[in-house]
Amino acid sequence: MAIHTLPAGWSLLATRPRDELHQALLTSTGERSFADVPVDWWDASIDAWRPTSIVRLLGGVWDVGRDVEVLVPDSGGPSAARISIAHVRLSRLLTAGVSRYWVARYQKLLVLRLVEQAAVLGGDPDPLRRLAARLRHQESLGYDVWATAYATGARDGVELPPEVPPATDDNGWEPAGADDPAAIIHAAVRVLAADLLRLDEALEEAGATAAERAAHPLLAAITSLLLRSPATPMVSPAGSDSRLA
User: On the CB side of 82, how many CA atoms lie within 13 Å of its CA?
Assistant: First the structure.
C-alpha cells in the first residue's frame, strides 16, 4: 500500500489554495475550534510535508505571527510542537492507516469525556472505561503507521492517486440497551453533535466543500456513531444546511 495517498472525496484538496485555511486559522476566535483536524506541516529541514493533527491555536486573532500547536511522534507517545500557520495545509496524506490512527485517537478522547459525564450524572462509567481501553489499544496499534508516515514525509508537488478510506469500525459503540440511563445516552449525543458541528464548521471555514467534509474520516466516524444512537432518530450528514439543536 502506498504511504501517501488521498482518501476518496478529498482529491480536490490537492489543488485548493492553502490561503483559505490560513485565513480561517488567522481569524478564528476559539483556541480549540480546529482541535483534532488533520493537517500537514511543511518541514523546511527536509523539504517535505509531515502529516499531523491540530491541538490548539496560539496567539491572538489577526496576529500576523500566529502559530498552531500540532502533534509530533516521540519515544513516549505524541508530544506538541509549535508551528507557524503559514506552514500548514489541510492534510493530503490521510492514508487508510493514518486515518485509522486519527479516528481511534479521536474516539478515545470522546469516550474519556463521556466517562466524566457519567460520573457527574451518576451513571456506571465502567463500560465506558472498558471501551476507552479498547480504543487506546487501537490507537497504539495505529501509532507506528502515523509515526512512519511522519518520519518519511512527502515532497511538495507529488501527484498522489486517491485511496478509498477505511470503513469505520463499530469499535464497541453498540447502541445502548434499555437498561442504560437515558441521561448518559443524551449526554453522548450532545457531545458527538457538538463536535460534529465544530469540526464541520472548521473545515468549511478552511474552504472544504460539502462533499469533501462528508468524506473526512473524523466527520464520517461521528456521523456513523450518531446514526446508531437510540437517542438520534435522524441526523443530517456533514455539509448539509441543517443544524442540530
Answer: 5
